[in-house]
Amino acid sequence: MRERMYDMMRILVEISLQGSNILNDEHELTQALGSHGFQPDEIYDALSWVQQILGERGDYAESYSRSSRGAAVRILHPEERLAFSPAAHGLILRLYNNGVIDDFLREEIIQRCIDLAAEEIGLEEVKTITLLILLKDRRDALSETVREILGISKVRPSK
Predict the structure, then answer these.
(1) Distance CA 23, CA 134 (A)
(2) Of the residues 23, 24, 104, 151, which has the fewest C-beta atoms closer than 10 A?
(3) Which residues neighbour 53 within 8 Å (Cβ) at sequence distance 6 or greater?
(4) Going by C-beta distance under 8 Å and a sequence separation of 6 or more, which residues neighbour residue 81?
């Protein structure tokens, strides 16, 4: 199931990078995944998963993100270290050190990658999850630097 969920997220990111607002349009998301052969129960799971992105941020996270960024050093738990390839973990660190993501987004990316990964989490998984999160609510965060770090070309504006 995790592999199918990751496949759906990859498709949604690809469509969103083409300028679609699919991550915020339930009808469009349902139609697109249905046209790719996914079943209604899988689509419902994907829809729920996408709707929860950054959903739990709330007041706690707002005050947390306003605190001094980087005040705490994030060390991967031994199980997390085994889950992420060195390149994947390096990409998260690069995003963080370049100010692309804050403490909360770093945790969101790590957790979402772990949720979706069936095997070792590689570079592509981190890129996909990061893009999914940024395209969902922070499309404006896809600056030239972010696109360069993630290795993507120009992103079309939302429809």
Answers:
(1) 10
(2) 151
(3) 23, 108, 112, 132, 133, 136, 137
(4) 89
Q: List, for residues 11-69, the tens digit of each pLDDT value.
A: 999 999 888 889 999 999 999 999 999 999 999 999 999 988 865 554 434 444 444 45
Taking the C-alpha atoms of residue 80 and residue 29, their distance in angstroms, rounded to an integer, is: 31
Residue 36 DSSP code: T
- Any residues with CB less than 8 A from the CB of 116 and at least 6 apart, and which? 2, 5, 6, 9, 125, 129
Domains of the chain by residue range: 2-150
Bridge-partner residues for 84, per DSSP? 121
Cα 149 → chain centroid: 14
Rounded to the nearest 5°, which phi and psi values hold at 51? -65, -25
Tell me the pTM. Answer: 0.80
